[in-house]
Amino acid sequence: MKIFEYVKGARIKGAGIIDLPLVTNQGRNFTYRQESVNGEFVVPYATSGNTYPVQATGPYRIENTSTTFEVQESAVLNGTTIN
Fold first, then answer.
1. For residue 18, what are the β-bridge partners?
2. Which residue range or ranges hold the Archaeal glycosylation protein B peripheral domain (predicted)?
3. Which terminus of the chain, N or C, has fewer Cβ atoms within 10 Å?
């Protein structure tokens, strides 16, 4: 069973698909992916400052580009826009 907490999510301007490599507290690796809506991604995972069992192992990356983003836990909780 997995339990998720509702968060506002950090907002990242961009188009396409964004991904983030993650690792669980059981050592399982997976990739979170999301397609943009109206030129924006609303992302639920921080890349730093996160004290939860699921941890990012790298930055968010817009697929097929070299564009990456670091996201603080406070940005995820407060709905902050990342430029």
1. 34, 62
2. 9-82
3. N
pLDDT in tens, the chain (83 residues): 566 777 899 999 999 999 999 999 999 999 999 999 999 999 999 999 888 889 999 999 999 999 999 999 999 999 999 98
**Domains identified in the chain, total number:** 1
- The answer to whether 56 and 76 are in contact (CB under 8 A) is no
Give the largest Cα separation in the chain, rounded.
35
What's the rounded Cα separation, in Å, for the pair 45 and 29?
14
The residue assigned the tokens 């902050």 is 80
CATH number at residue 25: 2.60.40.3390
User: Which residues lie closer than 8 Å to 77 by C-beta, 6 or more apart?
Assistant: 7, 8
Is 62 contained in some domain? yes
